Design the sequence.
């Protein structure tokens, strides 16, 4: 049984791959810094019960939508609907 060289998981990253990872890591660090900055700047803000309810509801709906769409992608891929 032959192995497919394009499907080998031990293939090292090219220079472009490392650059892309560096850029993504930079974006992550900047977004994390900004999130901490905004979170600490809003330390005196009070949120009502309705605010917390809708915040949690928004998070749950967003995660559910993302999970549902990913499930559809995997389902269509496994059943050869991506032709």
Sequence:
């Amino acid at each position: 049984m032959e192995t497919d060289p394009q499907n080998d998981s031990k293939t090292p990253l090219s220079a472009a791959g490392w650059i892309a990872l560096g850029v993504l890591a930079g974006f992550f660090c900047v977004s994390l810094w900004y999130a901490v900055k905004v979170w600490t700047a809003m330390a005196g803000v009070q949120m009502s019960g309705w605010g917390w309810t809708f915040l949690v509801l928004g998070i749950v709906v967003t995660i559910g939508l993302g999970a549902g769409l990913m499930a559809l992608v995997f389902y269509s891929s496994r059943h050869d609907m991506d032709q």
